[in-house]
């Protein structure tokens, strides 16, 4: 008989938590008991995971010794407070927030890139899930780094509002309706209107002038690839898209790699779908390819005319799936297959 596991989803009523619940069922994860946890506000309401209807419990009073794996996505402060308690109670935490990602004894894992690091979960009982924009970038770059080495990455992101959470999805929808109706708009989640606009700002500003979202892409790429020599220069922008992040990547490799050779490497790499026809519509977009689907889509692969060892590409993925819920569940799948 297949072994089954008791799973707690923390932040079960949120944008990522809902996808985690759906994907546990979709991927037939061997779940025995499933606990949906959120704030006191949602306790007693119900959520769905495939055919199961589950009553939401208050995180504050939950006994984590009842679960073997906890999928956390309720914000950094919640993880800071509850993940160590869960781990101490024997529940292995897969944390989707940034809170533990940069600690040396916490593995930061993308299963297509560094699955071997999962073994290090024993130190603290916590495994960190990387930032959504980092995950899709390193999935696309790992085969190229393994083949010829990457010296430097310039990346601009075009990130959807679902990465901010449900409030942001509602803000974009409400503002879009207001703009089209010609009525006044108000902004609460973002500092400027997001409807029909682009904001060059995600997360807080840091002393060096970059935002924290940008520095996450630097720190996390070095940690996941296990190579601190890769230089990363990101600009992260929020765009009026509901689901799916897009990224323009400009990389400089150690050895020259042709666009054709890069395309061949990417076509056989795990988790990637190449869509690269040099004609109108022959490229992936958030709305038409990635939303609601699992792969990291890559297109617009070409040699950089301004650099002898430069390559450009366009990378798109669903930030709630590969960028969050799917990556966490893939980590859990490795955990149960190899370690529990
Ligand atoms: P709740 O719905 O009860 O507020 P999103 O990222 O879409 O904004 O969702 C955030 C998730 O984190 C929700 O499930 C939310 O639950 C949960 N959450 C927020 N604050 C707390 C808290 N203090 N305790 C437990 N869960 C929380």
Describe this structure in words.
It is a single chain. The protein is of the alpha/beta class and 340 residues long. 31% of the residues lie in helices and 24% in strands. It contains eight helices and 13 strands. The strands form two sheets. The chain has a seven-stranded mixed sheet, with helices on both faces. Strand 11, helix 7 and strand 12 form a beta-alpha-beta unit. The radius of gyration is 20 Å and the shape is globular. The protein starts with a strand and ends with a helix. The mean pLDDT is 97. Adenosine-2'-5'-diphosphate binds next to helix 1 and helix 4.
Bound compounds, each kind once, are: adenosine-2'-5'-diphosphate
Poorly predicted runs = none
Helix content: 25-40%
Gap from first CA to last CA: 15 Å
Averaging pLDDT over every residue, what do you get? 97
Task: Write a concise keyword list for the protein shown above.
single chain; 340 residues; alpha/beta; 7-stranded mixed β-sheet; 6-stranded mixed β-sheet; binds adenosine-2'-5'-diphosphate
In a nutshell, what does this entry contain?
By secondary structure, the protein is of the alpha/beta class. It has 8 helices and 13 strands.
SSE topology sketch:
Layout: E1 5-10, H1 15-26, E2 31-38, E3 46-49, E4 52-58, E5 69-72, H2 76-88, E6 92-95, E7 126-128, H3 132-148, E8 150-159, H4 166-181, H5 212-225, E9 231-238, E10 245-253, H6 259-267, E11 272-274, H7 286-290, E12 296-303, E13 310-317, H8 321-338
Parallel strand pairs: 1-2, 1-5, 2-4, 5-6, 6-7, 8-9, 11-12
Antiparallel strand pairs: 3-4, 8-10, 10-13, 12-13
The protein binds adenosine-2'-5'-diphosphate.
Residues 11-15, 17, 38-39, 41-42, 59, 74-75, 78, 165-167 line the site of adenosine-2'-5'-diphosphate (A2P).
